[in-house]
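Example record for the data management plan.
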Amino acid sequence: MTDLLRTSGDLHARGRGDRRAVVMTMGALHEGHAALIRTAREIAGPGGDVVVTVFVNPLQFGAGEDLDRYPRTLDSDVKLAEQAGADAVFAPSVDEVYPGGEPQVRLSAGPMGERLEGAVRPGHFDGMLTVVAKLLHLTRPDTALFGQKDAQQLALIRRMVRDLNFGMEIVGVPTVREEDGLALSSRNRFLAPEERRTALALSQALFAGRDRHAAQEALRARAREVPATRARAEALSAIGESRAAADAHAVAKAAPSGPSGVRAAARLILDEAARLRPPLALDYLALVDPSDFTEIQDDFTGEAVLAVAARVGTTRLIDNIPLTFGAAS
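Corresponding structural encoding:
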């Protein structure tokens, strides 16, 4: 039986297991949250404690955003959390989290929090980090889990925990998608059928960028494996491998550099979606270094994130996928 706790006093009085894993949510739980909770259960182990927080944080909603519209479904949230393996759901009120009104002292997300999502939603990440810090102090986990769909949020939380010596592990859990590729989100329920068809362009653009990257890497690998020398070309001409080697070298040399090609492939899909009815209104498409969310250059090697945000009708959606460039791949 999953306990529903409303106050920090109730939470602290409940005690804890050998290891506590916490999943932070704003409610309206879906299969993506269930994946987080199941992973938390595995990490905590049978003698551990899994706590799910449900709190719609007013600090991270700006003027004109959907704070009042954001779905609140606590009864079904508790049921899903229990089925996924949670021991407790901590669902405090706004007064419980912010006694006396909005906090006078808040965390700053710094320069990373002013890029991409932070540029579109000023102050959003300051409010997010403030409430995450408070909930981490209240729940006192050994491990906290967050979805990779909110990649910039995850990066900022990891940076906060490291920079401010919180002393806990932050685990990112891969994005869960619906069968058509759309990333699971509490906001998907607001999409009309024709809006949902347009919204598929977000994931399709990411997959197009990923496929372009995979093709480029395969060609480069082929060029490395088959040297374009006359002796080898002549020896293998009977079976056509010389042509394959020549083509691989030519395409690898002529194709746009990795990050540029990825951006171009994704942009093509988004440009087409902008002409649909209803249209997709792009906020940004970015290929960034996950350590600081700055755009990567064409000579970049290592882990990167291809991220997109757009509006369809009145609903705003975000998505991203990880990619690896250069020698690291």
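Summary line stored alongside the record: The chain is about 40% helix and 20% strand.
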